[in-house]
Every structure is written in structure tokens, then in C-alpha cells.
Design brief:
Length: 260
């Protein structure tokens, strides 16, 4: 199914609020929910992550083995797991994370890291071949951003091509899983490619030095990645932390509308 009218209305109406910032001396990081911490915190002021009720993580092989029961017990409400990259790479911990997160009872989904030197249709097929269509899973995610460190692909397609490739991936993967993927991106990629032109997309936006209301002015979003150096019980190293835009009640409605 495509995003329902209920979901569209919910995302459009998600409320954003917050105040305060800075680091508490000798205590938790201000601006971050107290159940988590941050290895390299931003000096949050104004709108902060702590004023959002629902938080989750995204992980890949770089986090190593995860104690998913501790993660769930820490208050993490959702997790997206790296599954694939390009058209020939699979995260070696995806299968074990997929099973373990499910056993721990945490809502989880899979994400694909887009490779700018390979057609979107090939990448969609690669993702589909490695990620099961599992009842109760979160929607898939397309992670698309500039990859300045790539040893094999420094391509920078023009904005029209980028938007066309996104639409292709979203169409193919959405049709297979019965729900359109969430679209993750970064400030520079969003601006460089005018992704605000894309209609019907549900955005997950990275912004580690300011609330999305400031860094993506006027853009609606459902998820916000606010740090890449978060500390979460059950994960030995740093992890990405994310906030859902709405309240706990909004989250329950979002899950009902979006989970398979």
C-alpha cells in the first residue's frame, strides 16, 4: 500500500517544541534524553532532542555485536539496521541483528545505502534479494547522501538525475514491500539536489548541529538523526540516535499506519 491519508495527515501535523541546552557538569548531556548519552555532544540550545518523546537508533556492522535486550530495556523505541549497499554489498551483521532485534521485541526495519555509480533499479533489486518481507517490520529506508570517502565512486550526478533515481528506487522497493521507503538524507545533499521538490516522501533528516526546523527550514519530516556519537546501553561503541517528530501517541498511530 502507499502512504495512507491517515499517515499523511499525521506527519503533516507532528508537533515540534523544545528549549534549553549545554552540558550538565558531572551529569547527563543536556538536550539528550537522560537514558542515553553522547561521546561528543553538541551544545544544544533552543529546540533539542530531549523535547521529543520517542527515540531510536540505526546501526550497522560498525557497532559490533549488540545486546538487543539491553537496548530495548533502555527505552529505544525503534531500530533501523543496515542491510545493503550499492549492488554488491551486504552488511555482515544484518541477518543476526534482524533476528535478535525481533526476539527482543523492538520494532526494526532495514536500510539501503545508495551508491551513486550504479542504477537505482539494480540497487532496488539487490535490497529486495536480501531483506525479507516480514510482517511487523518497519518500512524500508533509502539512505542517500554524498559519499566523499568512497574509494570507487566520486560521482555527483545532477539534481534532476538524483531525484529521478530516488523515485525509481522508491517505486520498486515500495511496490515489493507494500509501503514506500522512508527517505534519509543530509543537509548538504538535500540542499544540493533540491529534495524538497519530491512529493509524497517521508523524510528522515540528519542534523547534528541544530534542530531540523533550523537546518531544513519549512521541510516536513518524521525522523531526525541528531548525533552519530550516541551512547546506548547494550551497544559497546558509539551509535546514531534519532528522534521521532511527534508524541508517544503519534508514534503509536504511525506504527499502526506504517508497519506491515
Amino acid at each position: 500500500m502507499r502512504v495512507s491519508l491517515l499517515l499523511a495527515a499525521l506527519v503533516a501535523g507532528l508537533s515540534l517544541a523544545g528549549c534549553g541546552g549545554g552540558r550538565d557538569r558531572g551529569g547527563p548531556v543536556a538536550g539528550i534524553p537522560h537514558r542515553f548519552s553522547d561521546r561528543d555532544p553538541y551544545d544544544w540550545r533552543g529546540l533539542t532532542p530531549a523535547h521529543h518523546e520517542v527515540h531510536g537508533i540505526d546501526v550497522s556492522r560498525y557497532q559490533g555485536e549488540i545486546d538487543w535486550r539491553r537496548v530495548t530495556g533502555s527505552g529505544v523505541a525503534f531500530a533501523w539496521l543496515k542491510a545493503t549497499e550499492g549492488g554488491d554489498t551486504v552488511d555482515p551483521l544484518f541477518k543476526s541483528n534482524w533476528r535478535a532485534a525481533a526476539r527482543a521485541g523492538i520494532p526494526r526495519g532495514a536500510y539501503h545505502f545508495f551508491y551513486l555509480c550504479r542504477p537505482a533499479a539494480e540497487q532496488a533489486a539487490w535490497f529486495i534479494s536480501h531483506v525479507p518481507s516480514t510482517p511487523g517490520a518497519l518500512p524500508p529506508v533509502l539512505d542517500i547522501e554524498w559519499n566523499h570517502a568512497s574509494p570507487t565512486c566520486r560521482a555527483r550526478p545532477d539534481p534532476a538525475t538524483i531525484r529521478s533515481e530516488i523515485r525509481t528506487f522508491q517505486r520498486i522497493v515500495g511496490a515489493h514491500y507494500g509501503q514506500r521507503p522512508v527517505l534519509y538524507t543530509t543537509v548538504d545533499f538535500f540542499d544540493d539536489n533540491d529534495l524538497g521538490q519530491l512529493s509524497g516522501e517521508e523524510f528522515w533528516l540528519r542534523s547534528v548541529a541544530g534542530h531540523p526546523r533550523k537546518t531544513y527550514p519549512g521541510q516536513r519530516w518524521a525522523f531526525w538523526q541528531y548525533t552519530g556519537t550516541g551512547l546506548v546501553p547494550g551497544i559497546s561503541g558509539a551509535a546514531d540516535l534519532n528522534a521521532f517528530a511527534g508524541s508517544a501517541e503519534d508514534w503509536s498511530r504511525w506504527l499502526a499506519a506504517r508497519r506491515l
